[in-house]
Amino acid sequence: MNDPLDRIAAALERLAPAPMPAPDFTAEAFVWHTGPDRLEPVAQVARVDLSLLVGVNRARDTLLENTRHFAAGLPANNALLWGARGMGKSSLVKAVHAAVRAEGHDLKIVELSREDLPSVQRLLAHLRAAPHRFLLFCDDLSFSHDDQHYKSLKAVLDGGIEGRPENVLFYATSNRRHLMPRDMIENERSTAINPSEAVEEKVSLSDRFGLWLGFHPCSQDDYLEMIRGYCAAHGVQIPEERLRAEAVEWQATRGARSGRVAWQFFCDLAAREGVRLRA
């Protein structure tokens, strides 16, 4: 049986673990984990080439220019990519990061989950001390009416008394422009004693992003162009008439058109044609 003092020491270690050692920033991408705190290197980022993202030209150019400015040490804005699901919001962030690195900038990307936002101050302390520049990326960010995680996000956007680290920029994606459901906003306005104050704190959170980039459902032409781009990139050869007929039928059965639906159709098409997808 273990010594009681050893068990007590082990229990205290779990409650208050030792500080995280200085991270090894040799990788280009990391995922932030807690319990215990650690930056997990990502050997290969799952992303598509920037040229394959069709129908988001304005958002692509704006985000690319903003990221270039940041990587070069110039002023840049935190960005919120919001709008229709499956239209390449998170893919654009990862593709822009790759494009800027390909231009010679040693830019790192760190993925942070919404559930780990309360630990963001500890993460920022590690990033602030590093001799690199970081994109801090939170995918599918949103809050419910009783969710207090949004308060932690202010540390990234506003920085508190220390200010946001000069070497950290925050990019987030969300299906909601104001990061909370419209019905919750309207409900709080209708039931509060001071309606405008009831939701001011949460709704104004999105105002702290310098860039709002909207993503909207794609047209059929854009949908088909996405599939043609995937076919060209992976060497799938198919007559135009057949591609159009099968792609339109596929999106009709899904009841939607988006970049995600285009990719799902292409995966099915490539499998039927016996083509293995390139990394």
Folded structure, characterized:
- The protein is of the alpha/beta class and about 280 residues long.
- It folds into 2 domains: about 15-215, Rossmann fold (3-Layer(aba) Sandwich), CATH 3.40.50; about 220-270.
- It is about 45% helix and about 15% strand.
- The protein has helices at about 5-15, 55-70, 90-100, 120-130, 150-155, 180-190, 195-205, 220-235, 240-255, 260-270, and strands spanning about 30-35, 40, 80-85, 105-110, 135-140, 170-175, 210-215.
- The chain has a 7-stranded mixed β-sheet with strand order 2-1-4-5-6-3-7.
- α4 links the parallel β4 (about 105-110) and β5 (about 135-140).
- α2 crosses α3 (about 90-100), α8 packs across α9 and α9 crosses α10.
- The chain is globular.
- The termini are far apart.
- The model has no long low-confidence stretch (mean pLDDT about 85).
Please summarize what this structure is.
This protein is of the alpha/beta class and 279 residues long. The chain has ten helices and seven strands.
Q: Architecture of the largest domain, CATH level 2?
A: 3-Layer(aba) Sandwich
Helix content range of the residues, please? 40-55%
Average pLDDT value?
85
CATH class of the largest domain: Alpha Beta
Strand order, sheet with most strands: 2-1-4-5-6-3-7
> How many individual helices?
10
Work out the strand percent.
Answer: 5-15%
CATH topology of the largest domain, anyone?
Answer: Rossmann fold
Number of strands: 7
Quickly give the structural class.
alpha/beta
Low-confidence stretches: none
Q: Per the principal axes of the C-alpha atoms, what is the gross shape?
A: globular
Number of domains: 2
The value of Rg in angstroms is 22 Å
SSE string: HEEHEHEHEHEHHEHHH
End-to-end span in angstroms? 52 Å
Largest sheet: 7 strands, mixed
